From TrEMBL:
Gene Ontology MF terms: catalytic activity
Organism of provenance: Megaselia scalaris
Top-level taxonomic group: Eukaryota
Endonuclease/exonuclease/phosphatase domain location: 3-78
Name of the protein in question: Endonuclease/exonuclease/phosphatase domain-containing protein
């Protein structure tokens, strides 16, 4: 994924699926969407693992970003604006 430190067979299959089904990846920055906070037993880490997909031509996605507000989860909130282009 864009900005991810992971590039493996699952990522390749996802990209193949996106290309074969005429989808568009909406992710626009490399801000980590997943954060595993450190503890006494484990080191913390973060990565870009969440993907937002739309079908080409139907919806315009604008202002896509990972929220800096607390989501109370290990996944950050992803916010964006959708505009319907056609029916």
């Amino acid at each position: 994924m864009l900005g991810s430190s992971v590039c493996n067979l699952r990522v390749k299959k996802l990209f193949d699926f996106v290309n074969e089904t005429d989808l568009k990846i909406c992710n626009r920055d490399v801000t980590p969407s997943f954060v595993f906070y450190s503890s006494d037993n484990y080191p913390g880490w973060s990565n870009v693992i969440d993907v937002t997909l739309v079908r080409n031509g139907g919806i315009a996605v604008e202002n896509w970003h990972v929220s800096s507000e607390n989501s109370f989860s290990d996944h950050k909130c992803i916010l964006f604006i959708c505009e319907l282009l056609s029916l």
